[in-house]
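User: Please check token order:
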Amino acid sequence: MLNQNQTPLLNALKANAARPHAPFYTPGHKQGEGISQPLADLFGTKIFRADLTELADLDNLFTPQGVIQEAQQLAAEAFGASQTWFLVNGSTCGIEAAILATCGTGDKIILPRNVHSSAIAGLILSGAIPIFLNPEYDPVLDIAHSITPSAVQFALQQHPDAKAVLTVYPTYYGVCGDLSAIANITHQYNIPLLVDEAHGAHFAFHPELPTPALAAGADLTVQSIHKVLGAMTQASMLHVQGNRIDCDRISKALQLVQSTSPSYLLLASLDAARQQMALYGKMLMSRTLELANEARTKISQIPGLSILEIPSPAYKGGFVALDETRLTITVSGLGLTGFEADEILDEKFAVTAEFASLQHLTLIISLGNTPTDIKQLVQGFITLAKEYRRTNLTLKSHLWQDFVNTLSPALHFSPREAFFAVSEILPLIQTSDRICAEIVCPYPPGIPVLMPGEIITKPVLDYLQQIQAMGGFISGSADTTLKTLKVVK
């Protein structure tokens, strides 16, 4: 057992920030001396003294042999891994590295269609061929959950040469599929299970939370420590266990997708967040769950509102557990869209949600929230229900089903081939039956509808325009107004 009270990287950074010396190295502001006054007024000057580079005492992220290595070993023990890597380019680079380390050009990887866009980037970088699975769908709430064990089993029977399976656990809504069963099936083919656990870094620290991915049998998991724990934004971790992952390939892949000038502020925040959870995680998560349950109970009693709960009986492996710190509130019973409710709550009551969709608002309650926050949240919804209720809302139902119906049946090119192909930009109405050369990701549902290599169809174009008409927006593409699309020439 390691001494989890230690913070080797944080301590080294503190000592170097306080050491009197003449700095003739990057960064150019030289411990804050050259920082602009507006920036100093906002942040103060102390933080810039710790904005240092790879000095001798601070170790090197790509070849750690000192305090970074010690901090990563402490994190591995705290999160239940055999080896951990600190990430300063967010979970995005971790997902990309996971795919790069397990798949090469032409290799197949099985993954859900509601995967994060970082996985698409991983496909482009690696040249891997995606075998997409549709996740389980709730037609009442119009929410996609997890892929099921049976879907993974069928895909592996059809593609026994696949090199890896990747899944999302939990989803953005806090929904967890049957990861243990998926791990067992994947391991029957002696290939690794990769998990995008960006929103589940807190699972390891309280028994009332869902089973952590590693404990459920994942070979590799990527966690955004900044999303639900106490690290700074962009600070994440990649964890590995077992022998199905080549750790040297992970290290080399991370060198391709991480900055060679990593922020020690981010790295130190990972060290500190790990110590905080290792020492006080259960207490902090108990308090967080209490706050979440208070909000859940009070909001669910407001007429016109309902909160996502685990179904009884649960779906067939696509929804077996729920992160109770994640609240997805259905507001359509008030005659409001999620977008409208989000705008009202933010502007009128200073309550800001994580994510709005057509029918819902999704909220993250974490260790940083307070009883005052919960009181303000509940009061905001009470007033919303009393003063802003409407009766004339007509919602387009089964949005996810519409999305699935628009999907191209197969890739014409691999994502990598299409991404690097000669392309041209055409008006939207001229792109039907052409091959897409960019990622097109509408919110909602926040899932790529088009990716490089897929054939653009008229139903896809109609669907994207429908999302825009409902108040959604488009990301990933060069033209976010969707007047044009980039296609293979």
In short: The mean pLDDT is 93. Residues 264-300 form the longest helix (37 residues). DSSP finds 16 helices and 19 strands in the chain.
